[in-house]
Amino acid sequence: MTKKLIVLTAATALLSGSALAQESAVTGAAGGAVTGAIVGGPVGAAVGGVAGAIAGIAIDPPPPRVTTYVSEVPLPAERVVIEEKVVVGATLPPTVVVQPIPEDPRYAYAFVNEQRLIIEPSSRTVIQVVN
Predict the structure, then answer these.
(1) Would you report the helix, strand and coil content of the chain in percent, each value rounded to 5?
(2) From which residue to which does the signal peptide run (predicted)?
């Protein structure tokens, strides 16, 4: 009974959230549901779908002009190295300097562990690793 209630609650949240979400949230929900199903069965699918939808909304790829700006800005003389692996969705520690992008203040950039990163400035979340 409890499992059915959890699945029903999660499915309701997923459906109501997806109706208002962007395409990336739907993609995130599908990916999260598949991952959750593999790990935790039906309950994991429902919970993973909700988590994936939230992640899909939060991490949209930046516009091409932002990516171009970050790929062309000169590397700083001082290198920043952190122990944590830097991946999309990770939050940078407060010790990492994050620079705003002049053309689009919704984004910032940083150079960490020899990688060029595009950052969401208010949360310090890595949106993209620029190759």
Answers:
(1) 50, 15, 35
(2) 1-21
Q: For the chain, state the CA radius of gyration.
A: 18
The answer to whether 52 touches 28, Cβ cutoff 8 Å, is yes
92 and 121 belong to one structural domain: yes
- Note the Cα 67 to chain centre separation in Å: 16
CA distance 95 to 99: 13
Range in 41-50, 75-84, 102-111 the model is least confident about? 41-50
- Rounded Cα gap, residues 39 and 48, in angstroms: 9
Task: Please give the structure tokens belonging to residue 6.
Answer: 């959890």
Whole-prediction pTM: 0.56
How many CB atoms are located within 10 Å of the residue 65 CB? Answer: 12
